[in-house]
Write the structure tokens for this entry.
Amino acid sequence: MAVSADPKSVKVNLTTGTGMDIEWQDGHRSHYSFPFLRDACPCALCNEEREKAGREPGDSPQAAPGALPMFKPAAKPVSAEGVGKYAIKFNWNDGHDLGIYSWKFLREVCPCEECRAVRAVIKAE
Ligand SMILES: [Zn+2]
Ligand SMILES: [Zn+2]
């Protein structure tokens, strides 16, 4: 089964802060919260940090055992812009803006139940 990585529509809910909605050409719908997208930032820096910690894109960083939780304002983009026809990028409220989120990447990390289940199976194989 071919998985579409072409969005039919993309909605970034900057004002309401509710995240991003993508409807794909194959009819699948994905919803991404902004903190999820921030934790899934595909730039080299964030990638390396995630790999070191063994996190999947979108997993929030775990505080070290016994450490006091650090206060962090919820991640939210200040602005979002399209990158060519293949990606979108966000300027985050923490000043980070290196991640280029390709549609392909976004489809791969779709956080819906269905896609999570598929990824769990692939990982177990
Ligand atoms: Zn990053
Ligand atoms: Zn999905």
